[in-house]
Every structure is written in structure tokens, then in C-alpha cells.
Amino acid sequence: MEYRKFSGLDRRVSVLGLGTWAFGNDFWWGKQSDEVSLDVLEKAVENGINLIDTAPIYGRGHSEEVVGRFLKKRGQRDKLVIATKLGLDWTSGKLFNLKRAAMLREIEASRRRLGVEVIDIYQIHWPDPETSIKESAKVMREFYEQGLIKAVGVSNYSVDQMKEFMNYCPLHSLQPPYNMFRREIEEKILPFCVENNISVLSYSPLHGGVLTGKFFFDNVAVPRDMVRKNLDDLKEPKFSVNKKILLELKKIADSYGKSLAEFVLNWTIHAKGITTVLVGARNKKQIQQNFGCLGWGIKEEDIKKIEAILDKRKKLLNL
Ligand SMILES: NC(=O)c1ccc[n+]([C@@H]2O[C@H](COP(=O)([O-])OP(=O)(O)OC[C@H]3O[C@@H](n4cnc5c(N)ncnc54)[C@H](OP(=O)(O)O)[C@@H]3O)[C@@H](O)[C@H]2O)c1
Fold first, then answer.
1. What HEC string does 273-297 produce?
2. Confidence band, pLDDT 50/70/90 cuts, at residue 94
3. How much is the pLDDT for 76?
4. 3-state secondary structure of 128
């Protein structure tokens, strides 16, 4: 495992982090047994992952509770970096809530569910259109100054939103989507983060499993969960184009003796500006396979071929 410096933390973080959205066991990702989730956490940490990302909205507190159970069982709290979030509310009928009172309630609930005194990376999950960035940034600053959190993060923020936030509070990290099919952050967001020493935890590196190729080549049916049934990339006309593109990428992956998942994750952890890649895994087998992305590199000439293949996809899909 490789470890990288993370802004605001005195501990380095593993280049592969474990995302625990699916551990929520709800309509987003469908059924997930807690025992299996605990096995995945154990396997991940055994193999050197020290960063675990969760959020209250993942199963309405359930994912945080599972991570809390794991921390209690495992001990060695100080060896792990726990990232969670706030700002998505399932109780009021309004999804976004970054009002001060809600933020104060949320941090207490997360600390209780996780069983921790201090949250290592605390992230605003999405901007709240009804609360100014100034108001929520000032509350994050209070948490930081009170020592309740070690690093201040935001997720799904634009450059302008980060700039506004930084007027009122130190900003250590950003959590944006990033994978071979979703590269919007390369243009402005990643350069801004590099320039401003903002660590980046990128999410959905396998595009919800699309980039493993399994829905295209292995006869795996697209699950009817909320995440996958709504993905355009798994529906025509994109499906056929993606299949063609993934086949070309798979040929390069094959030349390294790697699966598409290992190949795609390797590309992602080496992308400029990325600190750590949050990958989801539903069982021990998947997390074990994903470790195959570590300890090797893609040759420069193949990086160029990947660029050309991904450019071709954009043209075919008019993106
Ligand atoms: N901040 C945000 O707004 C936000 C948004 C999304 C995600 N995240 C974070 O990022 C984490 C990861 O993103 P993600 O869960 O969306 O997606 P991801 O890592 O792109 O995909 C994970 C899914 O792909 C499948 N998979 C993983 N490894 C596999 C393998 N080796 N072979 C075959 N299938 C495999 C599994 O689902 P199946 O087995 O069911 O196919 C798994 O749940 C989340 O858990 C969460 O912590 C944050």
C-alpha cells in the first residue's frame, strides 16, 4: 500500500480508501448484510487501507453504525482515518440542511454512531441552496477550533464555492466524483486543489461497477437498485458505445495481466491531483480484487492510448 500526505492530518492516508455507502443496506444499493460489511472492513484494514469514508445519509445512520461497530471491535482507533459528512437531512422532507442548529445536531449524532471523540475528516456532503456558504463554513470553523474535527472537507463543491468557503474557514479536502467516464474536475477543480493544498478524495472510481466491465462482458444483470437503474451509461444508446470502449480498454488491461477493475483503479490513483480513491466493495472478494491495482504502473505510451480511447467515446456520445 502507498500512503500520501493529507492536508490537516498528521497521519498519511492510503491511496485506496474504503467507501461504505452500500453498507447502509437501503434502496440506494439494495440489500447488504452487516456481517459481510464488517468482513469487508476487516479485509480492507488488514491489507493496509487506513481511510474509511461514510455519511449519515447512507442508510439513515446505518453505515456509520456499522463503521462504529467495526472500530469498537478492532480497537486501534488512532491508526485509522475516519471520514464522514453532514448536510443531507432525511427527517424534514427537505434534502439539504446546513443551518447551524442542524449542523450541531448532526455532529453529535455522527460522533455517537461512530463511537469517536474526534472525527478525522468532516465534510459538507453537498452545498445547501437555502443556506449561505458563509453560515455553514463558520460552523465548520467552530468544530475545527473546538478540536471536534481534524480536517475540514467539502464534497461536490465548485471552485467558486470552495473560494467562498475559504473566506471563513480553513479547507483541507474536497470529495468529488472522478473516473474514466467522469473527468469534469480535471479542467478547473483539480488544478485549484493542487494550487491550494486541498487534498482530494475522489469517489465512484468504478462508476458504480460500470468500469469493471461486468455488465457488458460477464452476463451480470444490471441491479435494480437506485444507483444503477438510473445510470444512463447502462442504457442505450450509451450502453453499446461504452461496451465498445471498455473492450478497447480491456485489451490494454489484458496486456498487463490485470482485470478492468484493477486497471481502471490504477489509472485513477495515479491521476494528477488525486490524493486517495474511495472505492466501494460489497464483499471480501471484491475488495481483495481491487487491491490488485496497487504496486505497478501503466506505461506512458498506454496512458496516451487510454486518452485517445476516452476521447473517441466523447465524440461518439457527443459529450
Ligand atoms: N460525496 C458524495 O456525494 C459521494 C457520492 C458517491 C459515492 N461516495 C463515496 O465513494 C464511495 C465509492 O463510490 P461508489 O460506491 O459510488 O462506487 P464505485 O467504487 O465506483 O463502485 C462500487 C461498486 O462497484 C462494485 N464493485 C466494486 N469492486 C468490484 C469488483 N472488483 N468487481 C466487480 N464489481 C465491483 C460493487 O457493487 P455491486 O457488487 O453491487 O455491483 C461496489 O459497490 C462510496 O461508498 C462513498 O463512500 C461519495
1. CCCEEEEECCCHHHHHHHHHHCCCC
2. confident
3. 87
4. coil
Q: CA–CA separation, 29 vs 159, rounded Å?
A: 30
Query: What are the grid coordinates assigned to 172, written together?
Result: 483541507
Dist. CA 2–CA 140, nearest whole Å: 30
Q: In what helix (H) or strand (E) does residue 202 lie, and over which residues does it extend?
A: strand 199-202
Residues 6+ apart with CB under 8 A from 148: 107, 111, 118, 119, 122
Question: Could you tell me the pTM of the whole model?
Answer: 0.97
Q: How far is the CA of 262 from the centre of ligand 1 (A)?
A: 14
User: Looking at ligand 1, which residue's alpha carbon is closest to its atom 4?
Assistant: 203
Where is 228: in which H helix or E strand? helix 226-229
- As a whole number of angstroms, the distance between CA 9 and CA 252 comes to 37
Q: Which three cell numbers stand for residue 281?
A: 466493495
Q: Is 168 a catalytic residue?
A: no
* DSSP state letter for 242: H
* Cα distance between residue 91 and residue 101, in whole Å: 14
**Number of other residues whose CB lies within 10 A of the CB of residue 9:** 17
d(CA 300, CA 28): 38
Give distance in angstroms: CA of 236 to centre of ligand 1: 22
Give, in order, the Cα–Cα distances in Å from 11 to each of 78, 234, 272: 9, 39, 21
Q: What domains can you pick out in the chain, each with its CATH number?
A: 3-207+260-297 (3.20.20.100)
Output the nine-digit C-alpha cell for 2: 502507498
pLDDT tens digits, one per residue of 196-249: 999 999 999 999 999 999 999 999 999 999 999 999 999 999 999 999 999 999
Q: Which residues line ligand 1 (CB under 6 A)?
A: 19-22, 53, 125, 155-156, 175, 203-209, 212, 214, 223, 261, 278-282, 286, 289-290
Rounded Cα gap, residues 244 and 258, in angstroms: 18
In this prediction, residue 272 carries a pLDDT of 95
